[in-house]
Amino acid sequence: AESLYRSLHPASAAHSAHAAQFMPGGNTRSSLWAFPFPIYMEGGHEARLTDVDGNVYIDFLGEFTSGIYGHSPDFLKDALVSATDRGVSLSSHHRLEGELAERLCQRFPSVDMVRFCNSGTEANIMAINAALTFTGREEVVVFQGAYHGSVLTFSGNNDVNVPFKTIILPYNDIEALLATFAGRADQIAAIIVEPMLGAGGCTPGTAEFLSTCRELCSDSGAVLIFDEVQTARLHFGGRQSQLGIFPDLTVVGKFFGGSLPFGCFGGRKDIMQQFDPRAVGAIAHAGTFNNNTLTMAAGIAAIDQHLTAEALDQLSARGDRLRTEINAVFERQGAPYHATGIGSIMNIHPNHGPDSKYLRQLIYLDLINSGIFVAARGLISLCFSINDDDIVTFVQKLKFFTEQRSVCWS
Ligand code: PMP
Predict the structure, then answer these.
(1) Same domain, yes or no: 135 and 279
(2) Whose CA is nearest to atom 12 of ligand 1?
């Protein structure tokens, strides 16, 4: 698989070697690195990507859930052209920010007010700060495997972290939560939790676990923060609306900014009002691009034209179908893999064992060599441009190469 990959991608290899002279490992975004070198793309249209060697892929990664609209969609071009015509940075407020804020508050019943940032990372940092200030407490409960952004990662693997006092607990472990709150409920400012671990491997949070988080926060006065940067697309109103479990603060980003750089945190009015610049001692939260017109215009157009309840439910159904079929192939072929996830977001994992690192690399290379683009870590997220034929193609290719490899694991 590796030699075929190398022979298909000489130009990517050359770009990677060039970039490595000026950037460590040629990389500026850790999640994009892949063995033996990452692929360089020339461009994309709808659900297709073309790399610098001319190979064409069906894009099953969808920019790590952000690229839900497919590549170069017309709505985005129109929004960006009209925003650019009126001025990108106006040194001032403009009407689009209130319009986007209104749409997000209407969408999430738990969200009274929002603020904007440039990334999900920033939005999570600001949400945590809002909770620390609101409660006057210092400790934040986070979960193993959680990813709340580049400086809020809890993978246990050389993570960079901002200096909050964190208590790191196992995900979906109700006993651990109860034991922690029993000892120090009055010191905990917040629980921050993804309703499904995203970068941590698409492990859904159970309803019991998330409602325990809810109850413990309500009882202790801690702030419950749902990081729905990925899961907001699983259902209109996010995973919280699907489960009927509502946090105090919600963080979103990615596709709500039309796939442009974006982050947003919001929730209970009493917590958010700490940012009101008219208040004495208001929390300062500046940012040159927080209200840039490109993201605001793209977000409004995306929400109005694409992120409807019906479109999201259809996408989730298509994802459920793909995941079921992937698991059926693995089972039938006796391949040592399984897929987890909810709706249109999923991850292929090697089953546990000493060879799992190599099995992960192998299936990535086999998929890429078959023209199916996924993340090196096995993440798949569908965009609206993926159709039923693309799903059939994925399953056929998977069937073909897992059959070929069956001697390896039988
Ligand atoms: N939270 C979650 C759950 C995410 O998946 C991500 C990004 N993958 C982030 C936060 C960070 O968002 P950004 O990359 O925009 O900083």
Answers:
(1) yes
(2) 120
Rg (CA), the chain: 22
Q: How many CB atoms lie within 10 A of CB 235?
A: 18
Q: Which domain holds residue 194?
A: 74-305
Distance 146 CA to ligand 1 centre (A): 10
| 10 and 97 belong to one structural domain | no
Task: Indicate if 240 and 332 belong to the same structural domain.
Answer: no
Q: What is the pLDDT of residue 158?
A: 85
pLDDT category at 89 given cuts 50, 70, 90 is: confident
Stretch 24-29: mean pLDDT: 96
Are 379 and 330 found together in one domain?
A: yes
376 shares its domain with 394: yes
Say if residue 357 is in the same domain as residue 325.
Answer: yes
From 57, 254, 364, 397, the catalytic residue: 254
Q: Are residues 53 and 86 in the same domain?
A: no
Q: Is the pTM of this model over 0.95?
A: yes
> Does residue 193 surpass a pLDDT of 80?
yes
* Structural domains counted in the chain: 2
The CATH code of the domain that includes 394 is 3.90.1150.10
Q: At what angle do helices 388-404 and 309-333 cross, to 10 degrees?
A: 20
Residue 164's pLDDT is 87
190's enclosing H/E stretch is: strand 188-193
Percent of the chain surpassing pLDDT 90: 94
Give the rounded percent of residues in the chain with a pLDDT score beyond 70: 100
Q: Is 165 a catalytic residue?
A: no
Residue ranges around ligand 1 (CB below 6 Å): 64, 119-121, 124, 147-149, 194, 198-199, 227, 229-230, 253, 263
Grouping H, G, I as helix, E, B as strand and the rest as coil, residue 216 is: helix
Nearest partner of 146 among 221, 184, 79, 202, judged by Cα: 202
